[in-house]
Amino acid sequence: MRAVASVLHLDLDAFFAAVEQRDKPSLRGKPVVVGGVGGRGVVATASYEARQFGVRSAMTTREARSRCPHAAFLTGRFHAYRETSEQVMGLLRSVSPLIEPLSLDEAFVDLAAADREAHPLLGDLTVADVTAFGTHLRERVVEVTGGLTASVGIATSKFVAKVASDLRKPDGLVVVPPGSERDLLRPMSASVIPGVGPATAERLRRVGVHTVEELETLSEDELVRLLGKASGHWLHALARAQDDRPVVAEREAKSVSVEGTYDHDLTDRDLMERLLTRQAGDVAQRLRRSGLSGRTVTIKVRLHDFTTLNRSTTLSSPTDAAATIARLARALLADLDTSGGVRLLGVGVSGLADWVQEDLFGEPEEEQDELPEVEVPHHSRRSWSPGMDVVHVEMGRGWVWGSGRGVVTVRFETAQTPAGPVRSYAEDDPQLSPWRPPTPDDE
């Protein structure tokens, strides 16, 4: 741990749902659920208005609808989330060169590495100084994102800072004074420690451990015998708030992956296999350019209802062979039910190494210098997902309220307008089309 509270953890509140509420004025202050909207869908994020009804991330959409039937259930708009995330990460990088993003909506910041002259509120990093800075930072997040809020924790370590950011959500700030870390943690459930999932929590429960304070009573040897060497050492240290992990700006790559999202759901299994084969070739090329290889091949499949499936298989030795990666990816796909349609496919390789062991008994590697083009056919029937951005020739920008039976209903509004009117059109109306943000090529 550090002598001063100089590690900051920022977590954007109900991120996906908050972006939707920002961009859709009619949904502000109302329950919003983002994720899969079909019967097999899963909740990605719920607004705080929806959480009051018991809706939570990772809950099935079916259960979420039963708990909060009047919520707006929307599919994701990743371009909007990515753009907003970049705004926040840019703000954090203006504070310190040591920024460690964990996802689109959270990151660690090393305040000790910040330019104190450019940020005089940091002062000598006293509790009063970092509290004033944390308050200012939260105000700046609201400004750069157009209204989103963030919860911030500041402490002497990454572990305690992350715990602190959860304590006063939403839009909260908690600074943990040096020396008070263990007093903060002791009453908490042992599951607050990263790595204590349901299985580990059950093992701890069987020996009478429910809280961090009770976890402290176990010696390191006891925890190693109970949970294994790595987990035992980890829990023994964090239960005593001992965490010296640095904030790392550029983390070493742990995997190499390629994925694609498709405008229309894929149903042709042969086409999916060809797409995976091409992606495997792209991954192999990236591995070779970096002088890397990997043992674990993973495919990512997002179904029509937003359910995301990941399947992996591990080789006995690392490879950078496109044919091997493709063969394993296709085999993993064969075990999945994709009859309802697939909106995203991806291939990744992890367990990276800087060497390759020749596969003396495997199939010969195919030449992959020029990967074959794979054309994704266009569907004659348009797909209108709830929440997606659209534009109408006469009415302008809006978003899909709902669709079915040949009709699509649109509410015309944006983040810069008041709540707008609702209109319905035929699904194949030529004046209505999906809206996509401009790219540099468009300029």
TrEMBL record:
The keyword Cell membrane belongs to this UniProt entry's keyword annotation: no
Cofactor: binding details: Binds 2 magnesium ions per subunit.
CDD domains per record: PolY_Pol_IV_kappa (cd03586)
Location in or out of the cell: Cytoplasm
Enzyme Commission number(s): 2.7.7.7
Domain of life: Bacteria
A molecular function GO annotation: DNA-directed DNA polymerase activity
PROSITE patterns listed in its UniProt record: UMUC
Cofactor(s) it depends on: Mg(2+)
Region Disordered, annotated ranges: 363-382, 416-443
InterPro entries: DNA/RNA_pol_sf, DNA_pol_Y-fam_lit_finger_sf, DNA_pol_Y-fam_little_finger, DNA_polymerase-Y, DNApol_IV, IMS_HHH_1, Rev_trsase/Diguanyl_cyclase, UmuC
GO cellular component terms, semicolon-separated: cytosol
NCBIfam families, per the entry: PRK02406.1, PRK03348.1
Subunit structure: Monomer.
Listed name of the protein: DNA polymerase IV
